[in-house]
């Protein structure tokens, strides 16, 4: 009995002293907690590890697929650029003579059409004594290699920047305006043009001959509404994309003291095809006018010679835009309507404003369809499908859903093709009203920052970033 009463206090002492000992050894307790956490972490992540590994592999495959698609597009563009002109010559020679000429595959440097035109303008202007020759090669090299517009325009003539090459001045106002212009172009390209391009590529696909077998079944069965949406999106993309690059080039030029001429003047507001080409890619139009059309005689040698001069100019314009027969046909397509306006139906330019604008938009719209499809078979299928002539439905659930999903975005994109946003911005920033001054100050500094942040975020989060000028 005594032994039992003696044992009880010992047990009590053990129970009593146990927690105290633990309290007296916090390091031991901390180690045990860490050990438990580590064991718990080692047990849980096996499933998470597999999930993360699967996600990594998925992203890796997506990245490799995007790289492969870009590489195929680049090769296809280069092959088309190299092959079409060479094929035209080779086919003609092979048809006349009993030979089989091979087609050389020559990789052309990016931007070759722009700096070739710039060097041509320099040589011609020097020859005409309109501008003195540049004695220092490094300065001529600077002119040719101006990175702002070297690969996407505008085409800059030497006489327009010869004095700026020797001496430039940049102040805070130029820097501010340059940054604003660059960011507005970047936002236009990334936030608007890229999304329009994504819509077009999903609805009317690539348009390339290499993809004909894969694309035809989809295009033949697509609803008319879907095809109209895709062609309309491409018409918006091509303006927003090209004008955005010009905006960025003009902005970067301002930041370092170069003042480039404007390249686009809201061409979708034109009231005739003649007016459209006074507003679209103005540096290219003026180049062909001053270096091809006028030297050939212009309109000084009678209407037949003027028509021939126009035909040559628009044939060359089509060739400049791309190495495909569709581009040459596109140039001749515009020659037909310009000839109609100048010679056969001059009343087209005197239509009431609404009908003149509608006529211009219709001609330009179908011109872009011709421009887009390097494969004529797919182009014809789409042209027929726009009017339901493929046996395709006029409207289906997919087309209706896409229109509803993008209707507000497309409205914003259309608005960006007009001077309204710029007019509204200038009206607010130049107002003398107290509230308007405060709002204008906020917009003046907040809009460029917001545009830059959103553009970078979109570029980081989306792999679709086409460069349309790669083929020119």
Fold and architecture overview:
By secondary structure, the chain is mainly α. It has 18 helices and no strands. Helix 8 (about 210-220) runs parallel beside helix 15 (about 375-385) and helix 9 (about 225-255) runs parallel beside helix 16. The protein starts with a helix and ends in an 11-residue tail after the last helix.
List keywords for this structure.
472 residues, mainly alpha, globular
Task: Walk me through the topology.
Layout: H1 2-24, H2 26-43, H3 45-96, H4 112-127, H5 137-144, H6 158-166, H7 172-203, H8 212-221, H9 224-255, H10 273-279, H11 282-293, H12 303-321, H13 325-344, H14 353-372, H15 376-385, H16 397-416, H17 420-429, H18 434-461
Helix pairs in contact: 7-9, 7-16, 7-18, 8-15, 9-14, 9-16, 11-12, 12-13, 13-14, 14-15
Question: Using DSSP, what is the number of strands?
Answer: 0
Individual helix count: 18
The N- to C-terminal Cα distance equals: 107 Å
Q: Over the alpha carbons, how many angstroms does the gyration radius reach?
A: 32 Å
Approximate strand percentage: under 5%
Q: What does the main sheet amount to?
A: none
The computed structural class is mainly alpha
Average pLDDT over all residues? 81
Low-pLDDT regions: 1-24, 77-84
Order of helices and strands: HHHHHHHHHHHHHHHHHH
Categorize the overall geometry: globular
Query: Helical amount among residues, as a percent range?
Result: over 70%
Brief write-up:
By secondary structure, the chain is an all-alpha fold. It contains 18 helices and no strands.
């Amino acid at each position: 009995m005594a032994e039992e009463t003696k044992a009880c206090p010992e047990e009590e002492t053990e129970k009593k002293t146990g927690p105290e000992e633990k309290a007296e050894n916090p390091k031991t307790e901390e180690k045990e907690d860490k050990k438990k956490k580590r064991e718990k972490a080692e047990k849980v992540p096996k499933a998470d590890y597999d999930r993360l590994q699967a996600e990594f592999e998925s992203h890796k495959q997506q990245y490799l697929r995007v790289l492969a698609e870009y590489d195929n597009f680049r090769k296809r563009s280069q092959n088309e650029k190299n092959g079409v002109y060479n094929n035209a010559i080779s086919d003609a020679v092979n048809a006349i003579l009993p030979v089989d000429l091979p087609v050389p595959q020559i990789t052309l440097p990016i931007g070759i059409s722009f700096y070739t035109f710039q060097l041509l303008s320099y040589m011609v202007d020097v020859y005409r004594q309109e501008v003195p020759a540049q004695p220092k090669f490094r300065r001529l090299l600077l002119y040719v290699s101006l990175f702002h517009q070297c690969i996407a325009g505008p085409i800059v003539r030497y006489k327009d920047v010869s004095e700026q090459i020797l001496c430039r001045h940049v102040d805070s106002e130029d820097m501010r305006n340059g940054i604003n212009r660059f960011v507005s172009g970047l936002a236009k390209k990334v936030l608007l043009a890229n999304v329009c391009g994504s819509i077009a590529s999903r609805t009317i696909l690539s348009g390339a001959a290499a993809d004909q077998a894969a694309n035809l079944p989809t295009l033949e069965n697509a609803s008319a509404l879907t095809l109209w949406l895709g062609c309309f999106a491409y018409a918006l993309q091509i303006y927003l994309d090209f004008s955005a690059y010009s905006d960025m080039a003009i902005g970067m030029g301002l930041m370092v003291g170069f003042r480039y001429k404007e390249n686009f003047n809201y061409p979708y507001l034109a009231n005739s095809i003649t007016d459209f080409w006074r507003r679209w890619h103005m540096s290219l139009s003026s180049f062909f006018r001053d270096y091809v059309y006028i030297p050939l005689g212009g309109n000084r040698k009678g209407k037949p010679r003027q028509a021939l001069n126009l035909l040559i100019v628009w044939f060359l314009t089509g060739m400049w835009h791309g190495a495909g027969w569709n581009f040459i046909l596109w140039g001749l397509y515009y020659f037909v309507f310009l000839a109609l306006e100048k010679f056969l139906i001059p009343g087209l330019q005197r239509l009431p404003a609404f009908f003149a604008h509608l006529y211009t938009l219709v001609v330009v719209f179908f011109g872009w369809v011709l421009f887009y499809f390097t494969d004529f078979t797919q182009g014809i299928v789409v042209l027929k499908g726009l009017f339901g002539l493929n046996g395709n439905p006029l409207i289906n659930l997919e087309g209706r859903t896409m229109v509803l999903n993008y209707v507000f975005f497309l409205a914003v994109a259309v608005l960006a093709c007009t001077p309204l946003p710029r007019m509204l911005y200038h009206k607010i920033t130049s107002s003398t009203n107290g509230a308007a001054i405060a709002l204008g100050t906020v917009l003046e500094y907040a809009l460029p920052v917001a545009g830059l942040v959103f553009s970078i975020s979109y570029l980081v989060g989306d792999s679709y970033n086409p460069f349309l000028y790669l083929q020119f």
